[in-house]
Amino acid sequence: MAIFERLGDLLKANVNDMLDKAEDPEKMVKQIIIDMEAQVNEATQGLGAAMGSEKQALKQLESAKASSEDWNKKAKLALQSGNEELAKKALAQKASVDQSIVQFQAAYDTMSMQTAQLKDQVRQLKAKLEEARMKQNMLIARSKMADAQKGISTSLNSTDSTSAFSKLDKMEQKVNAKEAEAQAFSEMAGESNSVTDEFAALETENAVDDELAKLKAEMGIS
Q1: Using 50, 70 and 90 to split pLDDT, how confident is the model at 177?
Q2: For residue 152, which of 139, 136, 163 has the smallest C-alpha distance?
Q3: Which residue, 107, 118, 129, 216, could crosslink 221 as a Cys pair with Cβ 3.0–4.6 Å?
Q4: Which family does the similarity line name (predicted)?
């Protein structure tokens, strides 16, 4: 019966606690199912052996009953033949066989009861194994979901300078800096051009004034 106790302990184990300690929950759950299947197979083999013993006990019981009946018939035949002494000997053999029948019957009844209990236990174990198989898919799915959530959260909150997101942020900062620098140069160039234009205009205006003065002098206009 120790096999059923071991399997019972395994089935009662808190799978979620085992998952918390496992490096790879998916592999751990699959291994648990494999272990449970092995235990159920072992229990099934034990049941098969018990059923074999029960059948053997039944065979011995039926053989003893047949022998008892045979000795009873021989006793009757002896009496019919007028041989009372031989009839007594046959009945003595029958009495000895009948004592064995009592023992065989008790052994068979015990084995039959134990086999019935084992059958019920194996049925329960197989039902629990089937339940565990269904739970296996759920636990693996939950584990994968947790991994996905953890991965996404890690990516969003990552401060690692080597991450793709961090690299993109740094690149954006560099582009922003270059754009600001270009804008500053443009503004500086604009201011420089404005001053140059003012001097150019002033020089043009002075040249025009000089030409106007010369023209007035030629024409005698004061």
Answers
A1: confident
A2: 163
A3: 216
A4: Belongs to the PspA/Vipp/IM30 family.
